[in-house]
Structures are given as C-alpha cells and as structure tokens.
Amino acid sequence: MAIRIYGNLYYNYPSLQFPLFGIFVVFASWLLGTQYDKLKFLSEKDSLTTLYNRRFILDTFPKLVASVDRNQKKLILYFIDVDNFKIINDTCGHKIGDQVLHRIANVLMLHSEKKDKIARWAGDEFLILSTCSDTRQKEMRISRIQDELKAASQEFKLEISVSIGTAVYPDEAQTLDDLLHAADQDMYSLKSDRKLS
Fold first, then answer.
1. Which end of the chain has the smaller Cβ count within 10 Å, N or C?
2. Beta bridge partners of 134
3. Catalytic annotation on 124?
4. Are 57 and 122 in contact (CB under 8 A)?
5. Which helix (H) or strand (E) holds 77?
6. What is the CA radius of gyration of the chain?
7. End-to-end CA separation in angstroms for the chain
C-alpha cells in the first residue's frame, strides 16, 4: 500500500494498477542484500568450519588491542595445531579429515566466550583471541578442550588431539606476529615435553 501511494505521489503511477515497479524494487533490494551478506560471509569466514578466517583476524586485531588497552585487560592468543593431521588425512581420507576439523572447530566454539574471536588460521591450525582480566583461565580452557577431544576420538575411532600454545598481550608480546611467534614457541616446547615424558 505504501509503495502504491509513493508511486502515485512522486511518479504519477495509477494507484489502482498492480504495483509491478514496486515489487521489482523490493525484489532487487532483497537480492542485493542477500548477495552482500554472502560476500561478507565469504570475506570473513572459513567455508569449511564457519569460523573466522585469517583476513578477519588481521583486520580485527588492532581494534581488540585498543579495547583491552582502554579497559586495562589482557588479550590471550591461543595457537592450536592439530596433532598428526597429515596421518589422519592419509589413512582415513580428506572427507574424514574435514569432519575432524569441523568437530575441532565446534569444540573450540563450545569452550569459548561469546566475545572471543575464533579462527581457522591455516590448514590444520586454529587461533583464539580472548580478552580477559584473569590469565589463570588459560589452563582451565585448554584442559576442557583436550577432554572434549578425547570424547571426539572415541566417536571417530581415531586419536584426535591438539597442541595449544599461548601468549599474552601486552605481557609477552605487543604485535600479532610477535604473539603468534611466542605462542608457537610455547606450543613446540609443550610438544617436546610430551615426547620426553
């Protein structure tokens, strides 16, 4: 009705005629909006896991840093690497490998806060950026993730585990690259400890 009145007032369109032009405008707007949403999703999200992608994290990191500086909090970066993922892909196939990655993504989402940014960083690498004031939560979160993956291992009938390294802004590093490097070093030292024990 509103479209008919608008068309009649501004375009001298007969008020009793079928509002074909108005329907076309509404449909075109809906179609463009849908395409925009799809493009936005593809630019920010990983299509397999629906987690954020590397590009989104690179764009978002400066805003997160500004926010934690303003609120005098800390930013914890969790760097997560799937253990022996190549073996899973080689022995079980890429379809199972994809299912494992999807399950790990769900576990990470389950054990994260709503405000956390969770991303698939690369093939079998994930990343969580978490703002908090208490860094003691790190070990609890890592433990919960590992426990959940033990349950997933039983479901898939193969060993699913991850190695998780962490780094804290601003205590251990100031830039994203430096945080990633510190978390990567932490992760590899944990892997080395596991091999020795």
1. C
2. none
3. yes
4. no
5. strand 74-82
6. 24
7. 75
DSSP string, 96-135: HHHHHHHHHHHHHHHTS-TT-EEEEEETTEEEEEEEES-T
- Give the C-alpha separation, 54 to 171, whole Å: 23
The model carries a pTM of: 0.78
Residue type, 119: A
Collapsing DSSP states into helix, strand and coil, what is residue 39?
helix
In 3D space, the residue among 183, 180, 178, 179 whose CA is nearest the CA of residue 166 turns out to be: 183
Among 85, 101, 70, 62, residue whose Cα is nearest residue 179: 62
Q: State whether residue 78 is helix, strand or coil.
A: strand
Task: Considering the candidates 46, 81, 124, 186, report the single residue annotated as catalytic.
Answer: 124
pLDDT in tens, 118-128: 999 999 999 99
Whether the Cβ atoms of residue 101 and residue 118 lie closer than 8 Å to each other: no
Phi, psi (deg, nearest 5) at residue 120: -90, 110
